[in-house]
User: What shape does this take?
Amino acid sequence: MANTLRLYLTCIRNTLEAAMCLQNFPCQEVERHNKPEVELKTSPELLLNPVLICRNEAEKCLIETSINSLRISLKVKQADELENILTKKFLRFLSMRAEAFQVLRRKPVQGYDISFLITNYHCEEMQKHKLIDFIVQFMEDIDKEISELKMSVNTRGRLVATEFLKQFL
Amino acid sequence: MASTEGFVEADNAEAIITRIEHKSRKIESLLKQSKPVEALKTALEGSPPKTRDERCKSANWIVVHRALMAIKDVEGLLSSLDAEYYDILMKYLYRGLSTGDRPTCDQCLRIHEKLTERAGLGCILRCLADTVNTV
Assistant: This one.
């Protein structure tokens, strides 16, 4: 179980290291504009093949690259309804604070839970291998956070219910 | 130019699919003789180049998938495979990873790690950048 996680993260890390070759490329259609090409998808010659890496039916990672930007979309494992709600709320909380993260996208891509958008400017300001470390670390930590949240919700629920039902004893 | 290519495609598609069927029979027999490495080599060899036809690609993928799932010894496979097949194998691995089927993904992830160690990041990048010969 842990082995597949390790293989999955290694695969994503290798793919990101290969795909994160970004350079500045001003917009071809509109002068003086500089847009992340992976978001617009107007010119097919600027886009590389998107790659979908699935660990199993529930978890997957979509990596789309273009000449000046790279988009990573993650779908996190959600075992039951409670985890579903917790994941949605937690990742929405993070996405709303996307300014602080810089590489986070405000809205996840359709069909995924959270998306990152890395542009050439990020690669110039920050170190490439540190960015990749951040993404992989994020993926590892998300699972832990969601299980912690679930455990605390269950504990709190149990305590509240015990207290409340004591009056009926 | 595009129209002649389309014409050639239609005829070629049937020929390619028959070729793939021949290949799959050969691969079945190789697998029965417990030679998964040769089976995979045969599967990768006749990969239809520059076909736009989805049927040919799917047919070839099914054959390669069959050979891939039979592989148990990844190290042995990679040491006996020639370097020219690394790129094609990487493309098929990514196709396998996109299916989402658990045993396929497990197998593909295992082979992907070892193949990257051998072939390097250039292999992955060629796979991403090649929009013409997709698999």
About this structure: Chain B touches chain A through 24 residues (CB under 8 Å). Helices of chain B lie at 2-32, 36-45, 54-69, 74-80, 86-99, 102-119, 121-129. The radius of gyration of chain B is 15 Å.
